[in-house]
TrEMBL record:
Gene3D superfamilies: Medium-chain alcohol dehydrogenases, catalytic domain, NAD(P)-binding Rossmann-like Domain
TM annotation in the entry: none
Enoyl reductase (ER) domain: residues covered: 10-297
UniProt-listed InterPro entries: ADH-like_N (IPR013154), ER (IPR020843), GroES-like_sf (IPR011032), NAD(P)-bd_dom_sf (IPR036291), YIM1/Zinc_Alcohol_DH_Fams (IPR050700)
MF term (GO), any: oxidoreductase activity
The protein's name in its UniProt record: NADP-dependent oxidoreductase
SUPFAM superfamilies, A to Z: GroES-like, NAD(P)-binding Rossmann-fold domains
Length: 302
């Protein structure tokens, strides 16, 4: 089967398509034929060696997958051959592959009306947005400031916060303002033109998907009961109002989010669908920092 592999850390050109043996699902695992995988910024960080929790290359990138079950390992219940499933895979064998091995207990069956491209775009970004908001626990009518509101995590976070009844303010470039308002934001600040610390007044929650020096600046718009949540390295960590969150697999949440998407209550914005033949280009796009919503990879055509 085909898989994307890399022999060393480096720029997108280290990503190569190679042939490898078909994996066999072990106990508690299933084998999927790839429908789609999505690209997350962490894939680029791992490829470049900026984060190294997969160890050294060679490995195959990719956390998010949607596919069709073609084989089932021992002790798997609730999933059958032929089911379309989606979820989050954390392994060195990744999801940028023709066939993907995944733990069955991290996958959920597609709700009626779902498709692979949409489903693959959901797991990491939506679960992270949901879990970050849970950590902040915004109440109806509280104000939530979402930094990077137009990106993969941000576009879910804006919708989830608005659905909880919060007033949402996003930061985004002007070209994305209409998009972010359409997701439910009451206001959007162009961070390239305006200092958000003076533009937004007081807020109750900051969801910081940018990190770094956005941290301490964000603390300035919170009072003592405010909550600052980040998924990044941030100079605000250490302040008693701040917390760091890491997105984790949850089939319960994924079922709920997938159902909301299938019912049209939550929108998944796909910036671009590329094939695995274009995987290098997908990483260049992701690293541009200008992706609106999600990038999705579908199987090789060449
Ligand atoms: N710890 C975790 O579990 C976890 C999970 C998921 C993601 N993350 C991290 O969270 C970050 C966001 O992830 P993502 O998937 O949402 O990324 P993404 O989709 O690549 O984000 C791209 C968006 O970021 C916006 N942006 C870039 N710089 C900005 C700035 N200074 N202020 C406001 N907006 C800015 C861009 O909008 P404009 O063009 O409008 O600027 C673009 O739409 C990444 O660094 C990722 O690694 C962490």
């Amino acid at each position: 089967m085909k898989t994307v592999s890399q022999q060393r850390f480096g720029d997108p050109d280290v990503l190569d398509t190679v042939q490898t043996a078909m994996p066999v699902p072990g106990r508690g695992e299933v084998l999927l034929r790839l429908g789609a995988a999505s690209v997350n910024p962490v894939d680029c960080k791992l490829r470049a060696g900026r984060v190294r929790f997969l160890g050294d290359p060679p490995f195959t990138l990719g956390f998010d997958v949607s596919g069709t079950v073609v084989a089932i390992g021992a002790d798997v219940t609730g999933i059958r051959r032929g089911d379309n499933v989606f979820g989050m895979v954390h392994s060195r064998t990744g999801t940028y592959s023709e066939f993907v091995v995944a733990r069955a207990d991290t996958l959920v069956v597609h709700p009626p009306g779902s498709d692979h491209v949409t489903a693959a775009a959901i797991p990491t970004a939506a679960l992270t947005a949901w879990q970050a908001l849970d950590a902040a626990d915004p109440k109806p009518n509280e104000t939530v400031l979402v930094h990077a509101a137009s990106g993969g995590v941000g576009h879910f976070a804006v919708q989830f916060a608005a659905r909880r009844g919060a007033k949402v303010i996003g930061t985004a470039r002007r070209r994305n303002h209409h998009f972010v308002r359409g997701l439910g934001a009451a206001d959007v600040v162009d961070y390239t033109e305006t200092d958000f610390t003076t533009a937004v007044g007081r807020v109750d929650v900051v969801l910081d998907l940018v990190g770094g020096e956005y941290g301490k600046r964000s603390l300035r718009v919170l009072d003592d009961s405010g909550r600052y949540i980040t998924v990044q390295d941030s100079d605000a960590l250490g302040d008693p109002r701040s917390r760091s969150v890491t997105g984790k697999p949850s089939t319960v949440l994924l079922t709920e989010i997938g159902t909301s998407v299938a019912r049209g209550q939550v929108t998944v914005h796909i910036d671009r669908v590329l094939t695995m033949d274009e995987v290098r280009e997908s990483h260049r796009l992701s690293e541009s920092g200008r992706v609106r919503g999600k990038l999705v990879l579908t199987p090789w055509v060449a």
